[in-house]
Design brief:
alpha/beta, Rossmann fold, 5 strands, globular, binds P1-(5'-adenosyl)P5-(5'-thymidyl)pentaphosphate
Length: about 210
């Protein structure tokens, strides 16, 4: 029964709004769920998240950013994700390595081989059973996210950065259709939730 499910997308596209809904669907189907997030999910990971997202004017080097994402991930896998899966629990994670391919690979334009090397080192063979990418045009995500607090360090990037992030996500879904899918998140929340439910059925996570 244990499954590893991740939720992805550009800023403001509705991950937080859909996370609880997915958890409820999973629990109704008998999954014992652990909900977590990246960067974060452990005390070290949350401390790294604070450094990664803090309102700093310092120009963090892209390599340092990449390595911190994977440092947080190594801790998260060892302390939370692997133990939960071993225990038969389903892990529902707000962002994971596909975010690194999209943000550090697409957005920052880092060499994808660096990312896949770290992915193999930190994760071995482990990949999510299903990654749902909530996809919407950058303007929509920006407008939704903009109604909240002051932007964090990554949210301060220009639209072109997020266009590259979105394109990288779409590319990941096209290249890995057996475990990564896109949902049209530009629609109303009820419609998005219906699409999400269909994907969970289609990928045999719930019946
Ligand atoms: N990061 C992360 C990397 O660069 N590399 C990595 O490897 C990893 C793991 C993390 C940041 O770190 C980066 C990516 C991120 O920049 P985060 O908190 O996970 O940050 O991500 P954010 O994208 O900042 O999360 P947000 O909270 O901004 O976006 P959500 O969760 O997608 O959006 P949500 O649900 O809060 O919705 C935003 C607003 O829109 C409304 C909601 O009510 C809310 O007001 N809304 C809708 N309105 C209309 N129609 C719909 N369908 C709606 N859905 C939501």
């Amino acid at each position: 029964m244990a499954k590893f499910i991740t939720l992805e997308g550009i800023e403001g596209v509705g991950k937080t709004s859909n996370l609880l809904y997915i958890k409820e669907l999973l629990e109704t189907s008998g999954h014992d769920c652990v909900v977590t997030r990246e960067p974060g999910g452990t005390s070290l990971g949350e401390a790294l998240r604070g450094l990664l997202l803090s309102h700093s004017d310092e120009n963090m080097s892209p390599d340092a950013e990449l390595l911190m994402m994977f440092a947080a991930r190594a801790e998260h896998l060892s302390k939370v994700i692997q133990p939960a899966l071993t225990d038969g629990k389903t892990v529902l994670c707000d962002r994971f390595t596909e975010a690194t391919y999209a943000y550090q690979g697409g957005g920052r334009q880092l060499d994808v081989d660096k990312i896949s090397g770290l992915e193999t080192w930190v994760q071995g063979e482990l990949r999510p059973d299903l990654t749902i990418i909530l996809d919407a045009p950058v303007e929509i995500g920006r407008a939704r996210a903009g109604s909240r607090s002051e932007p964090d360090r990554i949210e301060k990037e220009q639209d072109e950065f997020f266009q590259r992030v979105r394109a990288a996500y779409i590319d990941l879904a096209e290249k890995n259709p057996q475990r990564i899918c896109l949902v049209d998140a530009s629609k109303e929340l009820a419609d998005v939730q219906q699409q999400v439910q269909q994907k969970l059925v289609e990928y045999n996570i719930i019946s």
